């Protein structure tokens, strides 16, 4: 499968470097380029990329809002979005994840890491380590879950074991660690993860962590 990549970066030199790096990969194709957030929306609508590499600081429309419009909760068949920024600031990471991003990298990361990051989220995985995601979401939990919000109907879709797997995902455990804690095989855990994501209409583990906090399944002061 060829991964079609849209590059959204306002610095021409940086954008050219990304184009060169992705074009050199046998399993990737540069589907388009954009130098600002509005252009990113227009190009994405025309070329329908699999993955969008999105700078946060874009003119006309910032990368977080562009991400929200491309991959937010209400978007049908959204592309995966990998956010790239020069700023390692929790607030930016949090806002990008809330907007629908599947991954986050710093702009000074090696190009090989960026290329592998695109492959990672194209496979449906999240690029941010679950433990890091938990820390970020926990820190901003008051924004995610309104006061008094409870579990409610969405959690009722899950079987007890699926709910337990979701709770452990939100605590930052890998599939192997979940398997060890629940005395299951890793393949069985993968099946549970896939099933719960489907039932809750979530795209990846990052969204699963956000969901767990939003519904009150876990809270920031646990563990």
TrEMBL record:
Residues 4-122 form the Response regulatory domain. The keyword Phosphoprotein applies. InterPro entries: CheY-like_superfamily (IPR011006), NreC/VraR/RcsB-like_REC (IPR058245), Sig_transdc_resp-reg_C-effctor (IPR016032), Sig_transdc_resp-reg_receiver (IPR001789), Tscrpt_reg_LuxR_C (IPR000792), WalR-like (IPR039420). It comes from the Bacteria. Keywords: DNA-binding, Phosphoprotein, Transcription, Transcription regulation. The modification 4-aspartylphosphate is found at residue 55. The keyword Phosphoprotein applies. GO terms for biological process: phosphorelay signal transduction system; regulation of DNA-templated transcription. GO terms for molecular function: DNA binding. It holds the Pfam family GerE. Residues 151-216 form the HTH luxR-type domain. PANTHER family: TRANSCRIPTIONAL REGULATORY PROTEIN NARL-RELATED (PTHR43214:SF24), TWO-COMPONENT RESPONSE REGULATOR (PTHR43214). This is DNA-binding response regulator, NarL/FixJ family, contains REC and HTH domains. It comes from Amycolatopsis sacchari.
